[in-house]
Specification:
Helix 4 packs across helix 6. The chain starts with a helix and ends with a strand. It is α/β, with parallel strands linked by helices. It folds into 3 domains: about 130 residues, Globins (Globin-like); about 90 residues, Beta Barrel (Elongation Factor Tu (Ef-tu), domain 3); about 120 residues, Nucleotide-binding domain of ferredoxin-NADP reductase (FNR) module (Rossmann fold, 3-Layer(aba) Sandwich). The protein has a 6-stranded antiparallel β-sheet with strand order 4-3-6-1-2-5. Strands 10-9-8-7-11-12 form a 6-stranded parallel β-sheet, with helices on both faces. Helices cover about 40% and strands about 20% of the residues. The chain is built from 11 helices and 12 strands. The radius of gyration is 21 Å and the shape is globular. It catalyses: 2 nitric oxide + NADH + 2 O2 = 2 nitrate + NAD(+) + H(+); 2 nitric oxide + NADPH + 2 O2 = 2 nitrate + NADP(+) + H(+). Its EC number is 1.14.12.17. This is nitric oxide dioxygenase. Keywords: 2Fe-2S, Heme, Iron, Iron-sulfur, Metal-binding, NAD, NADP, Oxygen transport, Transport. In the C-terminal section; belongs to the flavoprotein pyridine nucleotide cytochrome reductase family.
Length: about 375
């Protein structure tokens, strides 16, 4: 396994700086091999290549962890049911992927790399198909929007109810969401912002990104209204509570990264009596701390919970000043805590550095990032 993982990671360095060319070649070859596959993808392909590459990178990073590799790919297989991917499609995608890798890598490619990727893709396809076959849930749920609240020009909090079938998730997990009325076949992931409940109601916090490709987020913030129908795919993610742990808990949230943290706190509210829970919630300005009132309600009801809010660019804010990672560092150390971090890639990186400096064991840290680390 060590040599296998080395070959995959080593060969990936030949193409990682040419991601656009790699994805363009992959899709061109894929649709040439099977033109019918084009119907499974959005009309506008911008951003689609990034999602392919993110999945490849994630698989590469877990290949030397057999348990994590297996779990990730089975979950990915369940998730891909929403795209109507069938078993026969995997062979075609494998041919297109190997062709794209060879072409993009150029003279640096060799037979060892080729065989390693053939073996890797065979394992990937097998595990994804097994995950899809073992899932008894539907490929996706239809969900009706119940409430929709705007918080400033670019943020919204909305709830929806899964129809027809119960949807089971764990606090801290995320789901893929499609807005079929506005952007059919385009899916984006969002953390569920509330703990599981018997009503099949899910809450989401969405912020429109600066880049133009944020079509789904833009529609969820500006165009969706109560009564609209969305599609929600199977829950994924491991930023969940360890109920067997007796350690106190640190949660760090930046912006709409509050969503999974709020869900974790709500789940803890149902059973926790002995663990102290410290939530640090940061944003640029006080107006961006849209969820602070709800957190304060939870603090008033639960003596084990504390919330510290901070603003990085609002000198009039009557609270902590500075980036949330710096504030967390001032309140440390956090060596004996279970730590949960959610927010932008930059915020998560800086917070993980703080926790590493406090010698928090990696197995006691879980995070969710919006963007690449």
């Amino acid at each position: 396994m060590d040599n296998f993982a080395r070959l995959l990671k080593e060969s990936w360095t030949l193409v990682e700086q040419e991601r656009v060319r790699l994805s363009d070649h992959f899709y061109a070859r894929l649709f040439l091999l099977d033109p019918e596959l084009r119907k499974l993808f959005p009309v506008q392909m911008a951003g689609q290549g990034d999602r392919l590459l993110e999945a490849i990178i994630a698989a590469i990073h877990t290949v030397d962890d057999p348990e994590g590799f297996d779990e990730f790919l089975r979950a990915l297989g369940r998730d891909h049911r929403k795209y109507h991917v069938e078993a026969a499609h995997f062979d075609t995608m494998g041919v297109a992927l190997l062709d794209a890798l060879r072409s993009t890598a150029g003279d640096g490619w060799n037979l060892e790399y080729d065989q390693a990727w053939r073996d890797a893709y065979a394992a990937i396809a097998e595990k994804m198909l097994a995950g899809a076959a073992a899932d008894g849930d539907p490929p996706f749920w239809h969900a009706e929007v119940l409430t929709h609240e705007r918080h400033g020009p670019d943020t919204a909090v909305f709830t929806c109810r899964a129809l027809q079938y119960p949807l089971s998730w764990k606090a801290g997990q995320y789901v893929s969401v499609e807005v079929p009325r506005h952007h059919p076949r385009v899916w984006r992931t969002y953390s569920v912002a509330n703990a599981p409940n018997d009503d099949n109601v899910l809450e989401f916090h969405v912020r429109t990104p600066a880049e133009a490709a944020g079509w789904v987020s833009g529609a969820l913030v500006r165009r969706v209204k109560p009564g609209d129908l969305l599609r929600v795919a199977a829950p994924m993610g491991s930023m969940t509570l360890d109920r067997s742990s007796e350690r106190d808990i640190l949660c760090v949230a930046g912006g709409v990264g509050l969503a999974p943290v709020k869900a974790l706190v709500e789940e803890l509210a149902g059973y926790n009596r002995a663990r102290w829970v410290h939530v640090f919630y940061g944003a640029r300005t006080e107006a961006d701390l849209y969820g602070l009132d709800r957190l304060r309600e939870l603090v008033a009801a639960h003596p084990w919970l504390s919330v510290t809010a901070a603003c990085s660019d609002d000198p009039d804010f009557d609270g902590e000043q500075g980036d949330i990672s710096d504030v967390v560092a001032r309140y440390g150390p956090w060596t004996t805590h279970d730590c949960y971090v959610s927010g932008s890639a930059a915020m998560v990186r800086s917070t993980l550095r703080v926790l590493a400096a406090d010698d928090v064991p990696p197995q006691h840290t879980r995070y969710d990032t919006f963007g690449n680390l």
